Each structure stands twice: as C-alpha cells, then as structure tokens.
Records
---
Amino acid sequence: MHTCSTGKEKPIALFSKTFLLICSFFATSAHAQIHTAPDGWKELHNSECIRLDIRYATAHNFTKKKIYPCGRCFLKEEAVTALNQVARQLEQQGYGLLLFDCYRPLPAQWKLWEIVSDPRYVADPRKGSMHNRGIAVDLTLYDLHTGKAIDMGTPYDFFGPQAHSNCTDLPEQVLQHRKILAQAMKSAGFEGIATEWWHFSLRQVQAPLAQWEWICP
Ligand SMILES: [Zn+2]
C-alpha cells in the first residue's frame, strides 16, 4: 500500500525503489546475508523454555575457533514447530531446551572442514550435513528451576564411545536424562544418531543444502 503517494515520484524515490529491488534480489540469492528468517524458515530466540548457547559463535567448541560471527538459531519452520512441541512436553517435567547449534550455513561447514578435515567429526561440505539443511539441532536439557544444564555424561562435541547413544557404561541418572531427551525428541518426529547424544534431525522434511548467512544484530 502506498497511501502516502502523491503522484509523480521524485528521482530519489525511484533510486531507493531500484535499490530495494536490488536488495531483495540479493536477499533471495544463494549467498545472501540476511537479517530475518527467509521464507520457510524461522528464528528461535531465548524464551522461558528454550535457551541458546550457540557454541560455534564462540571459541568454546571443539575447534577452539569462532566459526559464526554471532549466535543465532534458524531452522526450517517444520523443525521449529516440532521443537516447540518438545519444549512444551519437557516443561511439564521441569526441563528446558539448551540449544548448541541449529542451521549451519554451508560456508561455515567449509570453515569447520578446513580446521578438521575428518568425516568422523565434521560432515564433508560437498555432501553436507542436516544442519546445512536447517533440519538438525544440537541440544541438551536444563533444569527450569536452577537454570543449570543437566548432566548428560559428556560435554557437547565430545568424540568418544561415552557420547554414543547406545552407551550403557554411564551412571543410571545420566542414562535416564538421555532417555528423557531422546524420547521427547522422537515423539515430535526427530531422529537421533548413534555417535552423538546431542544431535537430532527431522529427516522426513525435504530441505536442500543452504548457503545464506545471518547478519549480527
Ligand atoms: Zn549436530
């Protein structure tokens, strides 16, 4: 709606219109840098039951290097809907969701690959990861009363048998915590993987590898 338009457009208005058109073209192109979630995507923010601790935006990750310019959590809409369902379910049990990683742009996947070129730890960017499709999350539980992260037996991005989903050589309470997280994720359609207790993806959603990167607020 252009309710304020008074007829002839001044050259400056035409210029800014052209500029906006160019901007919106780049906003939808493959290597775009965006402020807000593109169509079909949503951004998750800190809320009462969801907290962000995006590790690749800090040096507090297994590479000891900052991969993202800042921590933001984008996912395909279907994954956000499913995750909100998980959060509602776990809230009743006194848990919140602590997110370590969400959508990971392909350029960031290349950056990770350049630091650790080992497919056991990082997906080859030519093949891509579910994170590059916006349908995977790395997360744990936190106690809604104390705000503290729940003991899952290993830290995030610990590479060893203790992090495996089928590892039983762990304290009973840890096994119970992992079960609570895995069951809640599964009930919303997420699937886990064998080697990482923190990784879940909504594989039934068809989503191509994505390049776009977010801009820091
Ligand atoms: Zn992951």
Note: Residues 103 and 134 are 4 Å apart (CA to CA).
---
Amino acid sequence: MGERNLEKNIYFIDEDGELETDDHQDSIIVEMREYQEQPFEGEIEKPPELQKFIEWVIPEIEDYLSKYETDLNSPTLKMIHLLPKEFYKKHMPTEGSDGFSCREGVVLNEERFKNFNLNLALNLIHEILHYFSFKKHCRSGETGDHSQRRSGLTVDSASPLEGTPDDIKLKALNEAITETLTFQVYINKIKGGPFFEDDVKKLDSSLPEEYRGKGYNVYPKTSSYGPYESLFYDLVKKIAVVDDKYTDNEDTKDVFYKAYFNGRLLPLARMLRKVDKDCLHDLAEIGAIPNNENLQKVNELRKKYGLGEDRETNEQLEKEVKQK
Ligand SMILES: [Zn+2]
C-alpha cells in the first residue's frame, strides 16, 4: 500500500464501513476532481474581477488555515462554477442564496454575482471553507456510488449520535464555525489585502472614535448565522467556567476548528461533556437554517445551559414569527 499523496482529509468508506484501500482512495479522488473541474453545461465564464479574486483568495485562505497544522483539501479555480439563474434554481437548496458547496464543487448564482462586492466575497469564502473542511463519503451497496456523509463538523446520526440513518447532525455548529472562520479570513487577509479596500475603510469608519486603532473590527453583515455564532461564542465562555483546562477562549475555539478540519470529534465531545453530558446531543439537533424551529432550539439550549439571552437571536426569532 503506497502512501496517500492526494487530499488527506477526504475519506471514502466502503459498504462494510471500512476505509477503501489507499490506492483506491487516490483513484476515487482523482476521478472526483476531474468531475468537479468539468464545466457544467451552460456554465458562465467568470468575470475577470471574480476570477482574479478567487485566484488570489484560495492560497490566502490556505495560508491562514496552515496554523491549524492539518491537511487540507484545496479547491481549484475550476471547481468554482458560475451558473445562470435558471440552471442554478434547479440545483439550489434555498431560494435566493448566493451559492453553496456540493459534490460538484462550489456552485454560484450568476444573478447574485453580477455586481461582485465585499458581502458576496465573504459568502464565497464561506463556501470555499466548506470545501476545505473534513469530508467523508460512504459507498452505497445499491448504486456503488459514494455519497457525502460528513462535511466539517457534521455527523451521520447513525454514528455517535442516535437517530435515523439519513439524518445529518451538528449542521448549526458547522455553519457557526464556517462563519467565524470566514471573519477570521476577513480580518487577517481581506483587511490590508488588494481587494475591497474602500469597503473595508468605510466599514471601519463606522466604528465609534474611542474604539478606533485598538484592534476592534466591524464585521460586514453577510449571513443570518449570527444566532449560531453567538451560541458558539457563549459556549466557549461557558467551557472556561466549567473546565480549568480551557480558560483561554482562543485555545477552546481551536479545538472546534481543528475538529472541523481533521474530522476528529472526540476532543470536542470530551470538552462539551464538561458543560453537560447532553450538550453535544442538544447541539446536534439544531438544523442548518436559522428558521423559527431552529432558533427556538437555540433559545432552549441557551436557557438549559445558562448561556444568557442573545439580542440578535431574539430579534431574528421575532421576525420569523411575524413572517408566519
Ligand atoms: Zn454554510
């Protein structure tokens, strides 16, 4: 068995739940890459500014993530597809979204990308980060195809958490981590980088005088994952209270980030057990989209574990209720 020389945090599992052999893993990955790099029928050529940005940002993200000292799956420019409205609509899970990460790579909605701006750039980084995260694909006996069963922190509910086999859990936590990493890339790479200088300046100038030049950042508001991010931050603070091993919040966050890239959930599960034996299970139950149902679950969890109220969560929940 030769050493695997392609991506090292994508795994392919056979029908018996065993790893496919190393050689086979590599050949599947080669095939998958070829498939992902193939243009879709009707795919639109990326406008030069979008193309330039993607070419610049992928290695920058990679450079930022190298601090987690883990193997990464690096996407290429060709794996990022710009699709016309009609075609995108057919494939997209949520109406009106900018893009998503999937089997085919990263798929973008051309209608939204007509005027490329900072918000779109951050949503694009979010999707690229999903691509960089840990992946596990399982082979089905019926079709012989491998389908994605894990991405980042998400888990198959058939493994450590109970539930129906087709259920994928921990989606909310996975989005929270993706979004916090997106802002880390914003602070460390976009700020001071060659793109969107004016937008960054404009955002920073909205910071009250007394906070300027002191390392504070104004975040562009790009997604509705705010309640999930707050939940993550408040959990990190809670962990410092219940576990004297994790008093540095940045170290605690790193445990989440590392699990997101290397797929090993055990250190994370151990840490969350200190909060409560059900904490991971409760987190697992919150779905990917911060809708009414999921935001209620967020608030139940906040209450159960004494995380306090969060204004943004309550405001978003109120909006959801009104829309009904
Ligand atoms: Zn996402």
Note: The CA atoms of residues 56 and 194 lie 9 Å apart.
